[in-house]
Design goal:
Mean pLDDT: 90
Radius of gyration: 20 Å
Structural class: alpha+beta
Strand content: 15-25%
Oligomer: single chain
Order of helices and strands: HHHEEHH
Largest sheet: 2 strands, antiparallel
Low-confidence stretches: none
Number of strands: 2
Shape: elongated
Number of domains: 1
């Protein structure tokens, strides 16, 4: 009885085409949207008595589809991706703190929470 060993020889062109496909783009957007909902839940909201724009940080999250240049075997390859951003002017201060505003690290905490919930 002869034993057969299965082999696989991948074609990098086909794999690259897959990683640029609209289906992968949709999957990355869905993942970023899930992290965005967690970030919105965790984000601080200012007191309306003291803050002129309460809730601005929470409502300023956006998911942007992008094509990212990823290095593979010494050459750049374009890959479908998505980026979660906060467009509020004070987003950096909320994320990292600046002396007046304490450090909340909302995006980092939301990403960690999404990883934990994936199991």
């Amino acid at each position: 009885m002869a034993r057969y060993r299965s082999t696989y020889a991948g074609r990098y062109e086909g794999i690259g085409k897959l990683l640029r496909s609209p289906g992968v783009q949709r999957a990355t957007i869905q993942a970023a949207t899930r992290v965005m909902s967690i970030a919105q839940f965790m984000s601080p909201t200012g007191d309306p008595a003291e803050d002129r724009h309460p809730g601005l940080y929470r409502s300023s999250f956006v998911v942007v589809p992008i094509t990212k240049n990823v290095r593979f075997k010494g050459r750049g390859r374009m890959r479908a991706s998505a980026r979660l951003m906060n467009t509020a002017r004070h987003a950096v201060a909320v994320e990292y703190g600046n002396g007046k505003v304490q450090r909340y690290a909302v995006l980092r905490s939301a990403l960690d929470a999404a990883r934990i919930s994936d199991g």
